[in-house]
Structure formats: C-alpha cells, structure tokens
C-alpha cells in the first residue's frame, strides 16, 4: 500500500523467489484487482503458477473467477497470520527500497514495476544464503 488509494500486488513463487509486481492503478476493490491479477498471472510461466496463497483481504473476493481463468487454485491464509506467506512478506520488505512507504504508487506504471521485478529476479545471490543480495542497490 502507498498513499491511499494507491497499491501494488506482489506475486512471489516460493521456491525460486521469482517475483512479479502488479500495478493496481484503480485501487484495491475486488472488481479493480481481479482483472490486473488475472492478466499478470497468465504472463508467468506455467511451471511457476501452480497455486496462489493470498491474505484474507476483500480484494480477492472473486477468487473463483481468477481460478477459472488461470486454472490456478487460490488458498487463503488465516487472518493475522503473515507467516503463512513468509516469502512474500520478505519480498515486500525488500521492495520498500524501491517503493518507500508514503509514496503514491500510481506514479509507477507497469513498465516501472516490471523493471524493479527484473532487478530483483536477476540480482546475484550467494547460493549458501537464501536471500543474500536480493534487491540491494
């Protein structure tokens, strides 16, 4: 979340840490999130989009429509249980280097967000340390 109503969605594959950042220029209501999430999910390689785990926000209320379009089951975390999405929470922390709190995220278009995700996805890592170097400038 940025300054209301600006927001982005982050999609992170758990084992490879492949990251996609989805612009949500219209806000966080379910009818605004569903088309952006569906469109961006279909651009991810099929082997990386087997399931989606989401927090229990109202923005994912149309989960059945997303599942029908993408053929990807959606699991919902228990309320107030961010550890059930640990990889995503860690990635969100790294993204604060690029998207600081309090900024209007509507100033970042999808091209900008794709460039940030590309940097995160192609940053050299020490294979002994699961998150070393990711997102560091």
Automatic annotation (TrEMBL):
GO terms for biological process: DNA integration; transposition. GO terms for cellular component: cytosol. Residues 1-137 form the Integrase catalytic domain. It comes from the Bacteria. GO terms for molecular function: nucleic acid binding; transposase activity. This is IS30 family transposase.
